[in-house]
Amino acid sequence: MTLTLIAVALYLVAAGLLVKALARGDDNPRGWTVPAALALVSHAGFHLAAWRAAEGLDLHFFAALSLVGLGMAALTTAFGTSGRMAALGVIVFPLAAASLCGYAAYGHMPAEGLDWRLQLHAWCALLA
Predict the structure, then answer these.
(1) Dihedrals φ, ψ of 66, to 5°?
(2) Cβ partners under 8 Å of residue 90, min gap 6
(3) In the 8-state DSSP scheme, what is residue 110?
(4) What local confidence, expressed as pLDDT, does residue 109 receive?
(5) Degrees (nearest 5) of the Cα angle 12, 14, 20?
(6) What letter would DSSP give residue 86?
(7) Is this structure's pTM higher than 0.85?
(8) Dihedral (C-alpha) 45, 35, 67, 112: value to the nearest 10 degrees?
(9) How many CA atoms lie within 13 A of 52 on its CB side?
(10) What per-residue confidence (pLDDT) applies to 118?
(11) pLDDT grade, residue 60 (50/70/90)?
(12) Taking Cα atoms as reference points, which of 43, 41, 42, 20 lies closest to residue 31?
């Protein structure tokens, strides 16, 4: 649960720094990248810990939604460092935080024994 709170707080700090920079008219904000990167690491760490506890992949609705939020936040952070896409973080980071909260609140399902082809299909669908 602590990784969840850390990630949510860091996502909100990054979004707040972006709002502050955009309100000033800064075209290339810089201070938000460190909290965003730490939030990504915490978010991913929460998923890894959940998968270890469930002894396999946990791919119910809220877990998949949280993984999509993680992917959106990672892409926003990666492409936002150049400055042009950084404004997306104002929307994406709170959404990633909310999806992580939903996953943490819903709980974890025991892993089902899925065939490797079905797991590959699920991962490709999430990445799409």
Answers:
(1) -65, -40
(2) 15, 18, 19, 22
(3) P
(4) 65
(5) 100
(6) G
(7) no
(8) 10
(9) 6
(10) 72
(11) confident
(12) 20
Tens-digit pLDDT profile for residues 22-48 = 888 877 788 899 999 999 999 999 988
Rounded CA Rg of the chain: 16
Nearest 5°: CA angle at 76, between 70 and 79? 135
How far is Cα 113 from Cα 111, in angstroms, rounded to an integer? 7
Place of tokens 């707080």: 9
Four-CA torsion 1, 81, 79, 85, nearest 10 degrees:
100
- Kindly state the DSSP code that residue 112 receives in the 8-state scheme: P
d(CA 48, CA 66): 12
Cα 65 to Cα 60: distance, rounded to the nearest angstrom: 9
